[in-house]
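hiii so my PI (J.) wants the whole complex modelled not just the main chain, which honestly fair. so below is everything: two entries, each one labled with what it is. i double checked the lines twice but i was tired so who knows lol
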Amino acid sequence: MSEPGATRGPSVRGVPEGDNRERMICADCGFVLYDNPKIVVGSVPRWGERILLCRRAINPRRGFWTLPAGYLELNESTSAGAEREAWEEAQARIQIEGLLAIYDIPRISQVQLIYRARLVDEAVAAGPESLEVALFRWDEIPWDEIAFPSVRWALNHDREARASGDFTARVAPPTDPAAPQRE
Amino acid sequence: MSEPGATRGPSVRGVPEGDNRERMICADCGFVLYDNPKIVVGSVPRWGERILLCRRAINPRRGFWTLPAGYLELNESTSAGAEREAWEEAQARIQIEGLLAIYDIPRISQVQLIYRARLVDEAVAAGPESLEVALFRWDEIPWDEIAFPSVRWALNHDREARASGDFTARVAPPTDPAAPQRE
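here's the output for the full assembly
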């Protein structure tokens, strides 16, 4: 039994009856936590030749630049989630064009789904999770201040897909140095 | 406090401190369940012009035909998950070719990622979740006994992608009659 006010939740490791993998179980009430990989949805929003980036106001990687992206919510489609994140982080209205890439990050049980997108208008503004937002031409992108490897992947994949006209979904490069990841 | 042996878990609805959405909370220990959309990974495995299907041994839709697919596990890449499901359901070894489609089913908070794939060899056999498995030519597919709408979508998208040579990731048709879905 828990102490009054204690917050423990599923904290005991065990294989539930009828299952074949270890799960976290609550010692208080027997609840089994079927934890699942999480989905991050985002976009590479373009306005002509410029790309929208957001400077993070929150950790991890506060002060670094990122594409608008975040966790998919329940009962939300992935494209609607990408649109919501563009709005929340950059007050940007976007039009989804198609899936650019699927980045598996199994180390942290994360799947990122990144869409190609156009800004509907040029009006963008920092949302609560951004210090500032801006539109960058390719040679203006602050490559040394990019928050996550997957942001670099998406920027390069978007450029390459548009140049080639081949919109097959891209995947993460085979290896990438252990670098900061979204949490 | 829970009765001895009772299994309740997070069963009270409320907005946790610092959050902006309702979550399920455990009345016993205060654990907050951050429930997330689930990822189903699968494939359309081909052996020449024939496609591998599995007749389901479990509910929902026991006795109906499906493509090998199932929930992505923690610390698993989506392509590895699709390979695992082909093995578990049809003892099939597959080689992933690329992402065929992303099917959003927000009503049940599910995202399906379906890959194009080749069978590495013709040896397939029913796994514990299949009554039987078989390779079908297009005109042999048991269309009236398909388990889920997304199986029909994937079969048609795979055929159309291969015919056109355009491998842009497909999405679900705009509307589909309320029909049985994976759970």
